[in-house]
Every structure is written in C-alpha cells, then in structure tokens.
Write a structure and sequence with these properties.
mainly beta, Laminin, 3 domains, two-stranded antiparallel sheet, 18 strands, about 5% helix, EGF-like_Ca-bd_dom, differentiation, extracellular matrix, NOTCH1_EGF-like
C-alpha cells in the first residue's frame, strides 16, 4: 500500500488510506486530536490538550484519580482527626466522642469543657463537682462519705468523733457537726479545743 501524501502520525493501510495513531486525526494523520472537545469529556473537572494526548486537572481541594475522575482530597483519612470524622456534602468535619469535649482551634483535636466552672454540671447540696476529660462526676463534700442507705447511694455525714479522725486535744470533747466536728475543752481547761491548758 502506498500513500502519496504520507501518514505523519499513523500508518498506510491501503491506497492513500491512513490509520492514525491515538490522539491524531486528518487524511494524513498530521493534525492533533483535541480530546478535551470530545463527548463524553475525558476529564471530570479541567482538561488540557497536549500534542497527541491530553491531561486532566482537578479543582482545589480535589485530587486526580487514575480513571480521570476527581476525588475530594479532604477525606477522613487525610484530615487526621483525633477521634474520627464524618463527610457531609463534600466537607470533612472532625468529631468529638462526648458532649463534654469541643473541637479545638486546629479543627482536629478535642479539648475538654470544664462543666464544673461553666455551671453546666449540677450536683446535689452535699456533693461537689469534679471535672474529668470529656465529662464530670459529683463527689461527696469533705466530711461526707458515700453509703448505700435505704435502697440508694447518698453522701452521709462522717462522725469524726466516732471514727477517731478528729484532732481534738486529749483534754477536750469532740462534738460532731454536719460535714465537720468541733472541739471543746473539758471543765477546768481552757483553749481552742485543739490546745487545752
């Protein structure tokens, strides 16, 4: 087979009949084929025609996949959240595992909310609030201890006079009070109750 005009980017298949290599067109295969103008488009976002071929590009925040599609580059795997994340409408949002945590300024790590100082935590009158990472708990006030009484747990006054945890003087009497105790010097002695003379 002879092709009088030649086949620039192809091969001669019959009398003056060229078979073009991919990416080229025309009677003598001398014209570049603009793949970006083809239907369906070869690229999802942006296409750039090159000599005998084309290149695909993606918009900001996306990355090119091997099949020419563009995938969101801000996926959970790439954002590196401390406690995992969710993807909503193409946006990646880091999550915190409890209501006692909030997303930090970096948008990836979770910081503790101090429920005790913000007033979010409510403890009963004889309990005090103790903040923990992501939560809080109510602890018995000093001078009270947790006991199981009448089918429920409650903070009960510690009788320091009976448990011998008072610091009264040897010549003083111990008087139990709610959550604490008092010391009173015995007859014939005077002082604070901690010191009697």
């Amino acid at each position: 087979a002879t092709c009088g005009h030649g086949c620039k980017y192809g091969e001669c298949m019959g009398p003056n009949k060229c078979k073009c290599f991919p990416g080229f067109t025309g009677k003598t295969c001398n014209q570049d084929l603009n793949e970006c103008g083809l239907k369906p488009r070869p690229c999802e976002h942006r296409c750039m025609n090159t000599h005998g071929s084309y290149k695909c590009y993606c918009l900001n925040g996306y990355m090119l996949m091997p099949d020419g599609t563009c995938a969101n580059s801000r996926t959970c795997a790439m954002v590196n959240c401390q406690y995992g994340c969710e993807e909503v409408k193409g946006e990646v949002q880091c999550l915190c595992p409890s209501g006692g945590l909030q997303l930090g300024p970096d948008g990836r790590t979770c910081i503790d909310i101090d429920e005790c100082s913000t007033g979010r935590a409510v403890c009963s009158y004889n309990r005090r609030c103790v903040n923990t990472f992501g939560s809080f708990y109510c602890k018995c006030q000093l001078g009270y201890e947790l006991k199981y009484v009448r089918g429920r747990y409650d903070c009960v006054d510690v009788n320091e006079c009976v448990t011998n945890t008072h610091r009264c003087n040897l010549h003083a009497e111990c008087l139990n009070t709610a959550g604490s105790f008092q010391c009173k010097c015995k007859q014939g002695y005077q002082g604070s109750g901690f010191h009697c003379a």
